[in-house]
Structure formats: structure tokens, C-alpha cells
Amino acid sequence: DVGNNDRGVTMVFMMAKQYISSWPLCNIDPVFPEGARLFNYSYHDGAFEVKVSGGKLRNMDDSSIYVAPGKYYVFSWRNPEMPLAWGEGLTEETQPIMIWENGTKAGSVTVTRKDGRNGDPAFNPYSLADANASDYSYSIAIPRVTKSSNLTFIARADGSAENILMKLDGGIDLNSQLDIVTQQAGDRDNPPAIARDKFLGYEQMKYVQRVAEKFAAADTARNTIGSPGAETYICTIGSTGFVINTGGGPNLSDARTVTWHFHDPAQNNQVSTNLQFNPPPQLATGQAVTVWTKIGYAPNAEAAWLYYTTNGVDYPEGSAGTGKGATFAVPLSFATNGTIDGGSTSQWWTAALPAMPSGTVVRYKIGACKLDAASLFPWTDDNIDVKRRMETMFRITNFNAATIPYYPHNDWGKMAVGLAEGPHVLRTKAILGRATGDTPIYRERTQTFYYDTQRPEGSILYPPTDGLMLSGSVYGVRVRSDMSVEEAWFKIEDMDPSNDDAQTGVANGNNAWVKALKGLVPAPMPGSAPDQQWEFNYALIPTTGTATIKVRLRELTSSTNQSLGDVDGHFTTLIRTVDTGGNGVRLFVHEPAADGETVGVGSNLVAYFSKSLATGLDDTQLVQRFVIEL
User: Fold this and answer.
1) Tell me: the pLDDT tens digits for 354-383?
2) Using CA atoms, how far apart are residues 89 and 92, in angstroms rounded to an integer?
3) Is 187 in a helix, a strand, or coil?
4) What is the DSSP letter of 281?
5) Are 4 and 43 in contact, with CB atoms under 8 Å apart?
6) Cβ atoms within 10 Å, residue 5
7) How far, in Å, CA of 488 to CA of 510, rounded?
8) Strands 469-472 and 572-582: what pairing?
9) Is the alpha carbon torsion for 199, 202, 203, 204 positive or negative?
10) pLDDT tens for residues 197-212?
11) Alpha carbon distance 460, 621 (integer Å)
């Protein structure tokens, strides 16, 4: 089988020792077949390409390979990548793993990932945009899932991927609701103690399609696989004529796609006098436009799409019926048979563009394909070019995150039902098509997401009930919350304006929102969910009246606007109403002004207290009355 051999070799490893001053020649027998194109997967010198020539591993210019001292190379077949139309970046709009909820792409939330205190100040492993390059952190947008049922997980790869597996967290059943397996909910495809480590927890996804989309040209010799570089047609509504940016790129002439694809907007459709762009641009103001394209041959054309932009800036790009950026994509449908060429029948397909005003600049290109193309092994340079322009899609549909039974510890122990609120992770393995029994070669992708179907939950432990009388000058408030809570803020509204933070200059939370500190909690009892504790003090308790203690639980997706209500702000406000019977004595720290502040050399500790505490005492006696603990 092309791209394989009798030993199913996976990679070849070459290195030079650090203490060698020369560059050793690596004149080795690579085991890979003659003519194989291989790529370097080490982090040394980038992903350069080499080949097998004359039974030896050689650079692409047929020169020998040398390895610098202290470096190493790892060569293997090119593994599955993202389709060229979508790109590889983490900020691209179409990612290797995507989540849809109720037929709509999931929204997103921006998270900040922070390195440890002894880590890298410029921590940003993916080189993303970063406003502060020395704060040990970077930010990235991840999907936010707000629905629990009818979830769809989509995985994409290029045309070299024969199969794609998916893993949720440590390994959760993803496919028992699909027709590709016969099993009970909760049963896993690759459970522990049975599966090998490299596939542990992975589930079989359902194959959707693999396409080698051939884009039309006025001269079919310019047909191109994939949108990038394909022939583009440009016109202005209300004006005469077209500009054609001629195509140029790799083509494919086998059973994976249509034989050829023809479109010339200035010519008629060969079955009538109508033009292939009808009415022509100069007559199309305010009218719908019918676009015709000719495909050879039936029955190979199974789908076709027209990709277009109207903003006068962007050029159309896309793949398999999905537009990129400002690109719209509309499907074409079969219209009529065309001419018969040596026994093969061509076909005409059509699509309708909406009515547009005069002056609209329309740029478009048209792709056609089969929906079940065979995977393409990256054997030659041409194979590599073409497979990157193909697209393979697998997916999981109708997943219910609220009712799925699973093993929280990824074992065979106690089961739970429903994903916990908060962060989760999906992983895929896009597997290269190889001969049966050969060692699998795959590309692993990772996508974290935030599961957020409800607001945070929690309760006020102390004071334990409404109506409790608080005495003394300080009361310690304790709050418990679920693990989704990132911050707890508090605000105390009582009947004494003199203790307000605006009056004292201290962040006590009196008539102002202040962040609480996270406390310590014991490990949860068996069968109980872990939780968190938040702590703060109600300071300067009035001698009479009532007070309302408000605690606001915020998670990652909550608003920072404290004026919003719980629903709009996506947070939860806990309320406890108490009676106040303080002793009238005040003692509080003024500097530092809030818990959690950073102090250093030159910092002062300043405390304010009621004068009554010093009545009748000299300075020495007064000092003896105070105890300071660090």
C-alpha cells in the first residue's frame, strides 16, 4: 500500500551529542520507502521536509543531512492538519474542534492563563496578542456552552485523516445515542484496564464527509482543489463586465472528486441564451441573479457551493459549504444535464444570489465535490499539497451533558450523572490512513470549554439565620459556594452612615462592594461534592438597628458590573438580614486599607480605635493593652 511498508515504521530519530564540536553526517538507511516525503517533528530548525533518495535520507535538494551539536531531528510522515482554507492558528474562526448548541455555534468567554510565581514573565506559549508581555499570563477565548442538551461536537482535519476519535475529560461516553454503536448510556469505547494508553478514554465519532472540492475556472486547466488560490470572478452591480483573477493551484484527477468544473459568466449556459451570470451585472440592480456552473461528470457531483462577498474589501474563501470571515456560502442545485462527452454526461448546477443595489462589488468562486472522497496519504509533494486542501469532518450529535452517566474518576467505581459546571476539555486524534496492523500516526488536538448552564450556587453559613443579633464590634461571616465561583464580593448595608467605607477610608464592605478572601475547607465527605469557603468580617457593628449582608458569587462568565441584577449579571446574590447590637467600641486597621493588599519595606500598620479605650491610661499602659499578631 502506498505510504506503508512491511514494518509499519513510524519515525526515524537522529541526534548529535552536545560535546561534539563537528556536525556529524547522518548517512542512514531510513527504513521508509523510496521517494517518501518526511517532516521534522522536533523543535530544532522547524518543520523542514526531507526525502528518501537512493535508500538514504536526504534533504530535498538531494544533499546529505548534518545535525548540529546538541540538536536532534525526528522525521515521520506528515500527519493530519487543518484544511488550508481554515488555517492552524488558535484565533482562526474555524477550529479543529468546535461546539454547537441547538444548531448554533457556541459563544465564547475569555480566560486568563497564568504561569507560577517562579515561571516565565513572558508566558505566552502560543504567541497570542498580549497587552502586557511581562505579567506571567496571557488571555484566550474558549467556547462557552450554555445549553445542556442537543450539543454537537465537530472535528475537522485535512484529507489525510482516515478516522477521528474524540475524548471528553478523562473519558466519557459520547456516542451511545448514535447509530454507529450499540451500547448503553455510560458505556465507553476505550475504558481503563481494557484500552491501550494512547486511546484510553477516546470515543468513535461519526463520519460526516471528506471532500476534495474542485473550484471552477473559465479554462478547466486552471481548476484548483480548495478555495485558496482558486479562480475568482469580480463584478460591480450596475456596471458592465467582469474581472477574472485566474486560478492557480494543485488539481486532482481521480475518483476523489469531479473531473472538471467550468464557469464563464460572460458565456451562455449552453442550454439556453441565458448567461451563466444572469442578468448580467449592468442589468442586475435590485434583481436576484442566477449563476450557472458546468460540472463533469454525472453522477460524481454530489454537492456544490457558491462563495461570495459584497463588502468590496474581502475576497471569498471557504470550504465544504462554510464561508470564512465575510464570505457568504449558498448551495447550488442540479438544474439539467449538459453535453455528453464520450459517454459521460456533464451537468449544469445553479444558485441564486439575492438582489443587490447598484455599486455593490461582488466577488465569487464556485466549488463542487463528492461527499465521500477517499483519504489521501501524504506520499508525494503533490499528495501533501492536495490533502491540505481537502477537508474531513466527523461529529458527535445529540449529546446531553445533563443526563450523561459517567465515572468521575475515570475508573470502574462510582458513577455520576451530568457534567459539573465549569471548565472541561475535548481532545481529538485525527488518524492517518495506514495499512492494517501498522502503528497509528495521528495528530492530537485539544479544546477547553466552559460549561455554564446555571448561575453559581452557595449559602451563608455564619450568621446562620436571619434575625440573629450581632454583638461586639466585629463578626466573622463565612460563606460556602460551589467550585465554579471565582470570586465572592460582599456589601453590608446598615443604619449607621458613620461606618461607611467612604467615611472611614477602609475597605470593610460597609455600603460598598469589597472582595472576600478565600478560606480553607476540609476535604469533602465521600459522595459529597467539593466546595469553597469565602470569609470576611462585618466590622464597626452599630449599637442598634438592622443590617443586610449581601454576598455576590461570581464565576468566570459573570459580569463585573455590580449594578446589574443576578440574571443579567449571571451571578448569584446571597442575603442575610440581622439585628445589630454592637458595643460601640471601634478598633480597625486603616493601613493597609483592605485584606489581601501587598505590603513591603516601608509599609506601615495604622489602626484606629475609640478614645474610650484609652481613658485613664498613659502611653505605656495603653501599649500594653494591644496585641499585634503576624
Assistant:
1) 999 999 999 999 999 999 999 999 999 999
2) 5
3) coil
4) G
5) no
6) 13
7) 15
8) parallel
9) negative
10) 999 999 999 999 999 9
11) 40
